Structures are given as structure tokens and as C-alpha cells.
């Protein structure tokens, strides 16, 4: 109740107002005139209808039949809601799932690909990082790519693999994880061919160099054999904004990647060691994959990108061609005359359901 409401009030609608009880019963007109105070001080009498209550009906005798109102009919019982519609929807979904399963198994086989010779086309598209990234997300994840390569190599219907690469590069670890699966497929007798798109640079070229044959276009940008690391020093920015940072560490180099200060000379030397070691591994693996000497690759490994024409002259690729040229070459290396292309990483209804 609102604290501002007067005491003794009662609700009327959505607000409160005082309730007045003033209706004295009058015996006779004489008594009324005698009992009423002088007119100068008496309040105006209410209307006659308001002075006397309505007469009560005469009490019925015991012999007089009393009419009683007819009993109120019982309310109808609420109808139970039918679940027929829900079960119909569930049944339709189950039937569709069963049909998709039948079509999926009939078209692709229990292991993912149907009968006949297949060439799996696996995309390396976007920035390369370790992890699981769906094709089309803008990132190439080593988990998903390695999984597709492994599944294709383990499938008896797949006779060869084509890597369709369009990537500016990424981390060395990502490339190395993918290269493990490339080598495994090759050891199982499954040739792996690269088809380069707009670009296949740095870590993307690292992957391509480990395949059996490389196709590119004259305008494809590739190469960029090298390793880079960056460090950002924001200490001045923090100081200007009054931000004080305290670092508590267990060892001298534990915070060498922080942006709160510049690198010490010892830290720069250690970072350089990391870069040099990774670079040496990169050059060594490219030389092995491309059947070149370490010195030949080192001469090309100043970090620059090469157009397809220059890459062909320098032995970084094998020929000009598109995806279908790469598939034909893969079929040739696999010793098959006919095939169909199989795209395990393309998003389809079956890939979403299973």
C-alpha cells in the first residue's frame, strides 16, 4: 500500500479513497425535526432514496416453496493437446535422415568415397595455423587438412591427392604438420600433386615443395622462402598514458616477448637463433622436396616472392597448369586412366549431418 494514502481508506479501481459510513435511520418526521440541529448548522439532508434502505422481502413460510436457481452446469473438461503434429515432424526428420544416409553411403561408400578411381582435391586456403578451421573460413588449419589427407590415403578408392593451394603462408609448425601427412601418403603409394592458385608463399610453398609435382600459373606468386619474427615495444605509449606495469618472472628470458619494454641484446641474439634454426630447416626441407642442393635453395631464399615464370626458371615449380592439369598429372603418377574428382573438405548436406 502506498504510504501517502490516508488511513482507513479502501481500494477503488487502481487508487485509494476514504470510505464514509453516514446513513442514520429516522423514526418519524416529528422525531427527526426534534433531533436535527438548527438549519444554520445542519448539513443538507441526503435524498429520500439515500435515507432509507430498500425494504426486505417478506420471509417465506415453511410451507411456501422456495424457488432455487438452477445449478450451474459444470465447465467442460479441457481437451488434451494433441502431440500428433510434433510426432509428425519428428517422423519426417527421421525419414529424411535415413534417406540422406542411404544416398550418402550409396554415392560415397562407407569409407567416404564410392567405387571407382578417385582423386581427392584438398584445399589449403587462407592463412595457415595449427588447429581446426573449416575450408572457406579464411584460415587453413593443419588439423583439418592433415585429417583430410590421412582419410584420403586410407581410402582404397582414392588413388591420388591434389592440394589446391591459395595461401600467403603462416606458421612453420602448421606446414610441418601437414607435411607429415603428405609423406605418409607418399609412403603408401599415393602421389600428391600441387595446384597453385593466386599465391602459395612462405609456409604454403613449404607444403607445396614436399609434393610430387607442382603446377602454377605464370602470374602466381610463390617462393618467399624465409622466416620472420616481430616484436612490438609499446613502453613509450604506456608511459604517456600513465600505465605502470610490473613484471614478476622466474627467468631472464621469460618476458622477452612482452611489449612493455625493448629487447635486450641477449634476447635479440636468442630470437635470431630461433629464426636461423627455423630457416635452416625450411631450406633443407625445400631442397629435399625439390631435389635441389641446399646451396641452390639458399641462393633463392632471401624472402622474396617469385612470379610463376621466374619460379619455373629457378626450379621452384614444375609446369604451368590449372587444377585439372594437376589432376591429370596425379592420375598419370597413380597409373590410372580414368577418375572422378572428390572434394572431402567441401561443405555439403552430408558433411553437416555426419
Automatic annotation (TrEMBL):
Residue stretches spanning the membrane: 86-107
InterPro entries linked: ClpP/crotonase-like_dom_sf, Pept_S49_SppA, Peptidase_S49, S49_SppA_C
Extent of Low complexity compositional bias: 37-62
Keyword Hydrolase: yes
Molecular function GO labels: serine-type peptidase activity
Superkingdom, natural source: Archaea
Gene3D superfamilies: 2-enoyl-CoA Hydratase, Chain A, domain 1, 6.20.330.10
Keywords: Hydrolase, Membrane, Protease, Serine protease, Transmembrane, Transmembrane helix
A Pfam family hit: Peptidase_S49
Region feature Disordered, mapped onto this chain: 27-81
GO terms for biological process, alphabetical: proteolysis
CDD domains recorded: S49_Sppa_N_C
Limits of the Peptidase S49 domain: 186-336
Segment forming the signal sequence: none
Keyword tRNA processing assigned: no
Family the entry assigns: Belongs to the peptidase S49 family.
Record's protein name: Peptidase S49 domain-containing protein
Species, as recorded: Methanimicrococcus hongohii
Amino acid at each position: 500500500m502506498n504510504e501517502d494514502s490516508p488511513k482507513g481508506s479502501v481500494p477503488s479501481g487502481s487508487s485509494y479513497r476514504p470510505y464514509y459510513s453516514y446513513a442514520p435511520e429516522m423514526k418519524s418526521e416529528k422525531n427527526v425535526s426534534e433531533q436535527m440541529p438548527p438549519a444554520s448548522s445542519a448539513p443538507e439532508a441526503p435524498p429520500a432514496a439515500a435515507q432509507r434502505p430498500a425494504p426486505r422481502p417478506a420471509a417465506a413460510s415453511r410451507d411456501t416453496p422456495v424457488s432455487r436457481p438452477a445449478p450451474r452446469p459444470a465447465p467442460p473438461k479441457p481437451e488434451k493437446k494433441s502431440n500428433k503434429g510434433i510426432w509428425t515432424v519428428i517422423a519426417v526428420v527421421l525419414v529424411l535422415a535415413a534417406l540422406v544416409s542411404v544416398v550418402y553411403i550409396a554415392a560415397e561408400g562407407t569409407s567416404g568415397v564410392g567405387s571407382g578411381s578417385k582423386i581427392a582435391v584438398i584445399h589449403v586456403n587462407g592463412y595457415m595455423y595449427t588447429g581446426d578451421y573449416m575450408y572457406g573460413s579464411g584460415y587453413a588449419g593443419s588439423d583439418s587438412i592433415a585429417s583430410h589427407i590421412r582419410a584420403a590415403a586410407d581410402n582404397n578408392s582414392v588413388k591420388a591427392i591434389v592440394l589446391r593451394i591459395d595461401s600467403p603462408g603462416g606458421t612453420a609448425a602448421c606446414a610441418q604438420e601437414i607435411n607429415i601427412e603428405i609423406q605418409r601418403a607418399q609412403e603408401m603409394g599415393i602421389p600428391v600433386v600441387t595446384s597453385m592458385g593466386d599465391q602459395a608463399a612462405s609456409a604454403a610453398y613449404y607444403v607445396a615443395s614436399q609434393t610430387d609435382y607442382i603446377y602454377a600459373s605464370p602470374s602466381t606468386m610463390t617462393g618467399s622462402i624465409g622466416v620472420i619474427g616481430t616484436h612490438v615495444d609499446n613502453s613509450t605509449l604506456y608511459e604517456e598514458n600513465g600505465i605502470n606495469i610490473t613484471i614478476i618472472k622466474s627467468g631472464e628470458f621469460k618476458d622477452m616477448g612482452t611489449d612493455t619494454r625493448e629487447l635486450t641484446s641477449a634476447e635479440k641474439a636468442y630470437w635470431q637463433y630461433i629464426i636461423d634454426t627455423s630457416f635452416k630447416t625450411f631450406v633443407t626441407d625445400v631442397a629435399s622436396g625439390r631435389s635441389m642442393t641446399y646451396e641452390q635453395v639458399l641462393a633463392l631464399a632471401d624472402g622474396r616472392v617469385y612470379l610463376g615464370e621466374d619460379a619455373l626458371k629457378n626450379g621452384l615449380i614444375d609446369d604451368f597448369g590449372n587444377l585439372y592439369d594437376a589432376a591429370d598429372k596425379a592420375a598419370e603418377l597413380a597409373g590410372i586412366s580414368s577418375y572422378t574428382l572428390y572434394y572431402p573438405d567441401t561443405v555439403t548436406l552430408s558433411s553437416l549431418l555426419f
